[in-house]
Amino acid sequence: MSFSSTTDTPASSASIAPLFVSHGAPSFALEAGSTGPALTRWGQALRGRFPALRGVVVVSPHWMARTPQVMTGAQPATWHDFGGFPPALYQLQYPAPGSPMLAQEVLALLQAAGMAAQGDAQRPFDHGAWVPLMHLFPHADVPVVQVALPAHAGPAEVYALGAALRSLRQQGVLLMGSGSMTHNLHEFFGGEREPAPYVLEFSRWIEAALVRGDWKALLNYRSQAPHAERAHPTEDHFLPLFFALGAAGNDLHPDYISREVVHGMLAMDAFALEPTHTPA
């Protein structure tokens, strides 16, 4: 399968570049490392370029559903969907508003693309959404709409989800995939260590494929990328990358925000997918 489609046209200069972020462990909310401040600077620059930012549409692996679900509530709660972390983490709140109007636009676009999308007015923000957003927009003043990652989907299906929403980029909306560049929790032992060689090899292979626009290799990363199954024993935390790619289209290059590795095995890569050129 090719990523190309009739909607793969160059983005205009008024388009907001889609974003992929690695949200790491929930403790990223308190332990910002170098990635947290880098995301904050990027968010500030985005607000400078797009002062009328309408909202963020985010996909996280911590909300999966059989069919696309869309958060429609006006004031989603902050869900601490994890256990065993310091008490301070459970005191954090991210009181960003939802956007019922934007949610209806998302639903309409997904349904127009043939997806049986439904709204969920009770859905809270899971940590895959609110933890990176705390760094991107620390004042929680940008409306957020979360979309469920389709269960049992592969890269091509998640790409199609992002592609269906691509037009929102010209309407003041940031489309964001929140996952992890590497995510093998069987190797998580805590503490700070040097990055495992396989983590660096996998991450830089993905970066090189993005830079050269090798969509076939990316789509088939499971069989082509070095250490793919070790980097991702399951695909859920890598699939949000394809949401960002679908939102971007084929005319892009990765503008890296972070290449940090924490705990030796969690690559915190974050990058915007900027157009390689803009129309005259």
Describe, in plain words, how this protein is organized in 3D.
The protein is α/β, with parallel strands linked by helices. Helix content is 32%, strand content 18%. The chain is built from ten helices and ten strands. The strands form three sheets. The chain has a six-stranded mixed sheet with strand order 5-2-6-1-10-7, with helices on both faces. Strands 3-4 form a two-stranded parallel sheet. α5 packs across α10. The radius of gyration is 17 Å and the shape is globular. The two termini are 31 Å apart. The N terminus is likely disordered.
Relevant terms:
disordered N terminus, six-stranded mixed sheet, two-stranded parallel sheet, single chain, Protocatechuate 4,5-dioxygenase, Chain B, 280 residues, alpha/beta, 18% strand, globular
Biggest β-sheet: strands ordered side by side in the sheet: 5-2-6-1-10-7
Cα end-to-end separation? 31 Å
The averaged pLDDT comes out at: 92
- Supply the CATH class: Alpha Beta
Helix content: 25-40%
Give the C-alpha Rg. 17 Å
